[in-house]
Every structure is written in C-alpha cells, then in structure tokens.
Amino acid sequence: MTRRIAARRSPIHGNGVFATAPIKAGEEIIEYKGDRITHAQADKRYGDGGETGHTFLFTLNERFIVDGNSHGNTARWINHSCDPNCQALIEEAVEGKPSKNDRVLIEAIRDIAPGEELTYDYGITLDMPHTARLKKVWGCRCGSAKCIGTMLKPKRKTA
Known about the structure:
Layout: E1 5-9, E2 15-19, E3 28-32, E4 35-38, H1 39-46, E5 57-59, E6 64-67, E7 79-80, E8 86-91, E9 103-108, E10 119-120, H2 132-137
Parallel strand pairs: 7-10
Antiparallel strand pairs: 1-2, 3-9, 4-6, 5-6, 8-9
C-alpha cells in the first residue's frame, strides 16, 4: 500500500501532515494513536491543559483520552483549521459504552489533492472563561477566509 500522507514543516504551525497522493471524500486516512489514559491521569501529567495552547491529547470518551505525545503517530501533527478538509470521528468498540478500545479516525470530508495540508477542526472546549489571553494562547493560524481567530469553541449562552 502506498503511503498517502507525510509529516513535514507546516505554514500553519510547526509540523503538519500533507497528502502525497489523492485522497477522496469519505476515505479514512489515519487513526489518531497514543496511550489511552484517564482524564485524571492527563491532568496529573499535563495540568488542565488550558494554559499552554499546545496538546496532543484527544478526548476519546468521558472516561479516556488518547495521549498522542506517548506512543503517538503522524496523526498528532494534523493542524487545526476553521475550514478543514478532514474530520475526526470516534469509533466505539461497544456502542454506547465508553471503552479504552474506542478509536479516533481521521476522515476526508472533501477530495484532497497531493501536496495539500490535512486539517480538522479541533473543537476545543474549556470550562474556564475565554479571556482575551486564553484566546491568544489558543490562537488559530489557519489563514482561512472563515478563520474565527481561535481554536476554542464558543461557549453556549444560558437562557
């Protein structure tokens, strides 16, 4: 099987992942891999994560997180975009039951040409107030015309 992606320096941020062959909409590209840890273990390892603006943690379900920083793969280098060409999907090992065996799959949401950088919307939600400083820490550099300037998802207003 020909390798369809490669990691290299990105104009968006740090490293990125780029298509080396055409990828069709709906195709599974890669699984986001890493150690499965609990939310409490992640907090102990990395703090609450909200202050750094940099993480390889991917929430798998209400019990587990994938730590791409430990035994991770190329998927950890896929950058955020406000106008992504991929999406992250959670594949449940047992439907409706949070499991350590659930998987995060990255799938193309449109055709992707060779040389194009793969991106998805990180969908970052933080419980703490979204201050100007936090929005800057979590600033988006995607450069899209649809860019909202931050990787943080807007908080829902209560009625």
